Amino acid sequence: MTLIDSPAGQDRPNISVGPAPRRTTRQVVLSWYDHTVRVGGGAPVVVQSMTNTDTADPIATAIQVKDLAMAGSEVVRITVNTPEAAAQVPAIREQLDRMGVYVPLVGDFHYNGHKLLTQFPECAQALSKYRINPGNMGAGNKRDDNFAQMIEVACRYNKPVRIGVNWGSLDSSLMAKMMDENSRRAQPWAAQAVMREALVVSAISNAQRAETLGLPGDAIVLSCKVSHVQDLIAVYQDLASRCDYPLHLGLTEAGMGSKGIVASTAALAVLLQQGIGDTIRISLTPEPGGDRTREVVVAQEILQTMGLRAFTPMVVACPGCGRTSSTVFQELADSIQTYLRQQMPVWKTRYPGVETMNVAVMGCVVNGPGESQHADIGISLPGTGEVPSAPVYIDGRRTVTLKGDSIAGEFQAIVERYVEEKYGVGGQSR
Question: Where's the IspG TIM-barrel domain (predicted)?
Fold first, then answer.
């Protein structure tokens, strides 16, 4: 076999690794009391989610907001669709404040948002941001008046807005106009291309109109939501090249389970790798009785596996094979991963930097010792037929070997000591 090497006298090319530099944008600030979340302008990509409770039920909604915030949602959106819902927004905010949960709340408005924000000023003040969909605000002059009313309220209370265009509710008059223009082209575009262009034009033109109505340019976030991966990538690449507003990414109606996760990851990872995107939401359809916080975890894991942010220690675990008929390593990997995530609400303040820790839980001696040595702390469990011992590696060095039926508990105790010694006061990471 002949190996192909670099030309004589030349070094191998320096291949760049990592995402492109973040796109330069304005910065939008969401705040509640002294708590602020910055979107764009070089700030880390923000994770957000949305409740699926009836906002008219303030207790259920406040509980779900708290759950999402504790899971890591830095912004939480709530539906404000009826007078009953709008009337309860201040109560939801008050309940959260009593619990010490100061996550900014975003009001999601459609159809009647101009009326609700005007008729319920306490609601308008309790929210930290408004989400406006220009396609759901009427038609013609009525649409323009309704939009202007919402922008006027945002200006009055100094609230930023997200102008969120969605291809399921695109402004029909704009779409018809652009289709007519397209039919007169010498070489008409495909209908899908016209729709993508209409999304971008709608978002930017409405943002510009908001500015003419008095809303500062640094109080506007844009989004163009579609449900197909390639369309989303194309729309946001175009949108990013034509404006400097911060962009909210999300594949709308992504679907359930693995399909929704895979589709969202495929779309957002491409854009984030290109430096596009300032805040993200993973729109998963929950299984009946499913945990809403799953979409927060998925969003965090996308950002962390891409090296864009760190939220919780990552667990490396092998997939298993015929060498690992025992389920011990699977159970240990799952329990350690769950344990680490559960500790983060306390650890993130007590042990700064712990979110960057890597833990390896491996199932046999093939890759186990190597992966364990590369991790901050790792364990290599015995595979089928191997010596019933589990060496533990800390910072690349083999330290102890665990045996018997209490390996899981002993390893968790070792992890706890490692976190305290390395990330606590006076630890090595300081």
Answer: 36-299
